[in-house]
């Protein structure tokens, strides 16, 4: 169900699940990852987008993100930096995203729906 429909239902029921700007941002991010537009984000879809994001951030194209290159939307570089060297390899970046993906795939079907995606985004912002 599109987020705007869910917000309308929430408003009718007496509450709004999220502020409109935040809701639109979440839906836009979800749609960007849902490459085939089927309403589910598979890890393959997320992998492709996250790999592209890493490449775009890697200004010096050395395959490593330094702290000044990293543009994490909600989490600091250290949240992905498994070896503690304050840089990120593509493997570390993808491992961090895969961990979040698996954590929030509540029904373990190998895909995230919008509700699961929103939960992951909310958790990342509060960590």
Automatic annotation (TrEMBL):
Any keyword Signal?
A: yes
Query: Is Zinc one of the keywords UniProt gives this record?
Result: no
Q: Which UniProt keywords apply?
A: Signal
Alphabetical list of PROSITE patterns matching this protein = EF_HAND_2
**What GO molecular function terms would the record report?**
calcium ion binding
- Classification via Pfam families: EF-hand_5
Which SUPFAM superfamilies does the record match to this protein?
A: EF-hand (SSF47473)
Q: Which residues form a coiled coil?
A: none
Q: Which residues form the EF-hand domain?
A: 21-56
In the record, which residues are listed under signal peptide? 1-23
InterPro entries, per the entry:
EF-hand-dom_pair, EF_hand_dom
This protein is called what? EF-hand domain pair
Q: Which organism is it from?
A: Tranquillimonas alkanivorans
